[in-house]
Automatic annotation (TrEMBL):
CC per GO annotation: chromatin; chromosome, centromeric region; Ctf18 RFC-like complex
Pfam families referenced in this protein's UniProt entry, alphabetically: Dcc1 (PF09724)
Cited InterPro entries: Dcc1
Family, as annotated: Belongs to the DCC1 family.
Name by which UniProt lists this protein: Sister chromatid cohesion protein DCC1
Biological-process GO terms, alphabetical: DNA replication; maintenance of mitotic sister chromatid cohesion
Coiled coil: none
Source organism of this protein record: Erythrocercus mccallii
Gene: Dscc1
Key words, A-Z: DNA replication
Amino acid sequence: AAMRSRAEVDATLQTAKVNPEELLPVVQCLSFGPQAGGACCLLQLEPGLCAELEAGCSLVIRGEKDEHAVLCSKDKTYDMKIADTSNMLLFVPGCKTPEELNPGPASCNISHSQIAGFSKNYWELRRCRPKLKKLRKLLMEDPYEGPDSQKDQTSTFSKYTTEDLLNLIQASEEEILHQLQVIDACKIEGYWRILDFDYQMKLLNHVTQLIDSESWPLSKVPLCACLEELGSLEPREMIEHILLSYGRKYVDDGEVFFEMLEDKICRAVAQMLLQNAVKFNLSEFEEVWQQSVPEGMTTRLDQLQGLALVDKSSRPETIFLLKVEDLPEDNQERFNSLFGIRQKWTEVDITPYIQDLCAEKQTVGALLTKYARSSMLNGVKVYNSRRPIS
């Protein structure tokens, strides 16, 4: 199209019954450029993310073909949703806003701008929980059973480097590295592995027996002596890894010590006892459990949150293994599976099994309001499913 002249602009204003006196003197005429395709993607960023990009950091979109894409910064994960706009959005390079137009002499001037692209929607980002369930699942395909394991030599399972995990897990690098620590993964020959639970218990047993025979305080276990004494039984890096998993490392007078973590060790021993029984008489379990933990440690049921559940309705009361990490990651599926296990839950019982679903600043109470309905049972508030469980 030919460029508009001043006379044409004035005629158009007159037809539109617009008084030129009320307008800024500059008229911007827009025309579509030759390349004005719709191949533009708009992404709405919060100021923090924008600053990161401007500082030269990169944002990554992660997800396999069957997953909903997420966008990750160095340390946060965002859900991506397309938001449609009712108005077409036009991209005009060098476009000036009214504030930027300096009112020149009264003779009106015309500026011609080309539209480089347009869009009817944009991507909206919403901070979300990193999707980390898959991390454990991948590493559990092939847990490490120790250097003597034949299985490791013949295994056909994939092994994963940090790079692999960054490509497969929908979470930011920091969230992934933190989670690897949480699940006590360790790097063996460059690959991330989880130690097989029985192998972990074997290693832990070596350590606790040594502590016992040397009469060390549980709060001050020397790394060097452990490696010296146990190095002939198991690889030194495995001994150190089990100390890192079940102890807190500190340095005193230039020497490395570990304070053994009572709650974590008691919890592991309970898992070992419970994983071989469908249900366990509660009082018998408590007795055996206390006898099985290292001397000087005290077992308490609250150490088992998210690992085991007490059934108070059975006579006698029983306890059974129910691990939060085995439950679905999706909110609705998680609740379905919990209500399938038990029809009515108290808030105290269900909290450890839904705590990890809470988004930023969200409470367990808010989750329960959304996915469950409450009622009173013998004076106690209980929650059951909002929908029939098949």
